[in-house]
Design brief:
With 179 residues, the protein is α/β, with parallel strands linked by helices. The chain has 6 helices and 7 strands.
Amino acid sequence: MLKKGQKVFGADAKVLEKDALALTYSDLKGFDYVVDAFASPKAYQHIDVATNLITMFRENTATKLVFIIGASTLLDDDGQPMIDTVLKKYAGQPWIDAPVQQSHEFEYLKWIDNVDWIAATPQNELIEGPQTNFKIGGDHPMVNKDGKETTTIGNFAAAIVQEMTDPKRIRQRFSVVDA
């Protein structure tokens, strides 16, 4: 049975399954890319994992780190982080800590200038679905042809692979929306 990463990236993809907080440089040094798609009920661990990865790969240009960062980190029309609006609308919700911590994680990444990192952000709705057509953007929300802020998992994965095969956004974030 193929691991989930191999289902998305192909049967030849080298996949390591291990507790993200237990990863070592020896575990990861042979990879061209390390994708941090970490999820935990302890939201603060987003930053813990990111700082561990950054520490491991200081001044290493052979391995690039890809961080999956939520849509709350995008900027609204006024250039303000959308997390501000999300906090006002959903204050007290049990899930709110994850987007808050991912916002802190993205702010931290922007300070890092001696590690090759990329941040990838889907739109507000990341849904199951195949790769079809997608558009790449920057720091602001985008809508598809139907006016929805939707990204399928297939399109999101394809956009990440596209960036891996033709890197254009080192130490930057890009966002993805279905076309």
